[in-house]
Write a structure and sequence with these properties.
By secondary structure, this protein is of the alpha+beta class. The protein is built from three helices and four strands, in the order ααββαββ. The radius of gyration is 51 Å and the shape is rod-shaped. One of its GO terms (biological process) is type IV pilus-dependent motility.
Length: about 200
Amino acid sequence: MIRINLLPHREEKRKRRQQQFGVLAGLVVLIGAVVAGAVWFFLDQQVEQQRANVAYMKNEISKLDKQIEEIRKIREETASLLAKKQVVEGLQSNRSEPVQLLDQLLRQLPEGVYLKAVKQTNTKVAVTGYAQSNARVSTLMRNLGASPYLENPELIEIKAVPSPSNPNARVNEFLMNISIKRAKADDGKSAKPAAKPAGAK
């Protein structure tokens, strides 16, 4: 009977398996390193992209802040110019007020009433004068109330004092407030209604 020794064959097979395992382990490590490197590279690119986006956004925000500041300055300048324009328009529209005021006061002044002082503050006018009687002051108030240029006459004070021209005589000194009527801007409410179409009832 022939005997065969299998020990060298088994030992050689074990060595081949160990070599295969080492190769596979090396391949796994290599693949793991490649995957880890790829993941790290991808994440690094994402971080860099985010940094670039943040820098871009900061730059754009800075530009917008400058534009907003410029717009604010332009609005302030526009508001200032509009205010100046309104002042100029007000001066142009009201420059004839003193003449009209004095004209109306003279027109509405009844006989026996004399004016001492006239002071205008915006649309308010304070009138000081002398009257021979209370009835003449009442007549002056009615006349001023009916004026197309003046309104709201209000008697503040009336008292008997010596006449400036004759100390032996007595007259009534009065203080009165009135208001100036100013034309209001047309708001479109007074516009005439549109004509009806032909044939409409």
